[in-house]
Amino acid sequence: MSTFRYAVPSDITQWEIPGTESDVVFNWEYDAGRQRMLNLYEKGKQKQWNTLERIDWDQEVDPTDTSLAPDEMVPIFGSPEWDKMSRAEKDEVRHHTIGWMTSQFLHGEQGALVCAAKIVETVPDIDSKFYAATQVMDEARHVETYAKYLYEKLGLIYPINHSLKSLINDTLTDNRWDYTYLGMQVLIEGVALAAFSMVRDFTQDPLGKAVTAYIMQDEARHIAFGRMALKDAYQELTEAEREEREEFVIEGSYLLRDRFLAREVWETLGMDADKMVSYVEQAQIMSEFRKALFSRVVPTVKDIGLWGPKVQAAYADMGVLDFQDLDPDELSQHDEDVAEEMERMLAEKKENGFIVDDGSRSAALAATVAAADDTRSFS
């Protein structure tokens, strides 16, 4: 509560503009705010970056090269159809797989851009409006960056996946401000962050690694923002309100799990899509991959207090319940450490014309990556 004296009490003058889908909320207590949220806002301001300056876009990318991703990351790796392919055919499938996944990252970032703007409008707390404003800029930069990578380097883009589109639609059409946080900050960005970590840690493409690491640095703050805001708000929920939000979490989690079946790729390549999807659903390596995608979501859902029996049963069914013991703060700190180490290496390259590296820099980056959660392993 603000200690500043207003001529007219601010709780009387607070202004809400009813909308067709959500209400726009004004808050006049400009000196009010939780210190930890204001600290995050300050960090958000300091960490702004320009994709045209921070990233070396002169680097060439061969969309069919195995350096972009090992064969094991292709969803149908190990299937009879994959084993019968020539090297050129496998490389084409890899190109489409990477293009499809990166396209979903791009579309998800535009969804996050719209959601962040909606949060600025609808969230009642002024400190949350402040931070959400920095996220709007972050998400615009992410859309710009992924679009540039897709159009200029991969030369291939796919439309939005049905499951992702459905969850974004549910998130944006609900008129309660916290659902925007829950759908985007916790579920969609949580799964995306885990997927980003696998791309960052496995790709040998310097440009793709840099793009992913720098975007992850921002996303780690976004998830912290959602956790902070929802953890406070959800302490006041009634049992009925809590159950309703837990149902949303369960439905959204299953949608996100099924998002990575890549049906659109198999259809585009003229393959038997049903057969390929069935393989992806059953293959051990893809099962582990899809489980690992929830390494950021599960501990966050638990932390904000949506941890009833139905949620736990759903995550047990998905085989991801053990992620509840991971520390979200440690995961976020790791993402920042990797990005900062890459930034130091890039600064040395710009200053000296090459990376000064007697092995210690590469070892430091490798050690930083290795210090991540163990969920980036497929086995």
List keywords for this structure.
mainly alpha; disordered C terminus; 17 helices; two-stranded antiparallel ribbon; disordered N terminus; Ribonucleotide Reductase, subunit A; single chain; 379 residues
Question: What is shown here, in short?
Answer:
Helix content is 67%, strand content 2%. With 379 residues, it is an all-alpha fold.
Question: What is this structure's SSE topology?
Answer:
Blueprint: H1 10-13, E1 15-17, E2 24-26, H2 35-46, H3 51-54, H4 80-83, H5 87-122, H6 126-154, H7 162-173, H8 177-202, H9 206-233, H10 239-258, H11 263-268, H12 273-282, H13 284-292, H14 297-303, H15 309-318, H16 328-352, H17 360-370
Antiparallel strand pairs: 1-2
Helix pairs in contact: 2-6, 2-9, 5-6, 5-7, 5-8, 6-9, 7-8, 7-10, 8-9, 8-10, 9-16, 10-15, 16-17
Fraction of helical residues: 55-70%
Q: How is the quaternary structure best described?
A: single chain
Q: Give the biggest beta sheet.
A: 2 strands, antiparallel
Q: N- to C-terminal separation? A: 50 Å
> What is the CATH H-level superfamily of the largest domain?
Ribonucleotide Reductase, subunit A
Beta-strand percentage?
under 5%
Summarize model confidence as the mean pLDDT. Answer: 84
CATH architecture of the largest domain: Orthogonal Bundle
CATH topology of the largest domain: Ribonucleotide Reductase, subunit A
The tally of helices reads: 17
Strand order of the largest sheet: 1-2
Question: Low-confidence spans: pLDDT under 50, at least 5 residues?
Answer: 1-8, 13-17, 354-379
Rg (C-alpha, Å) = 21 Å
Shape: globular
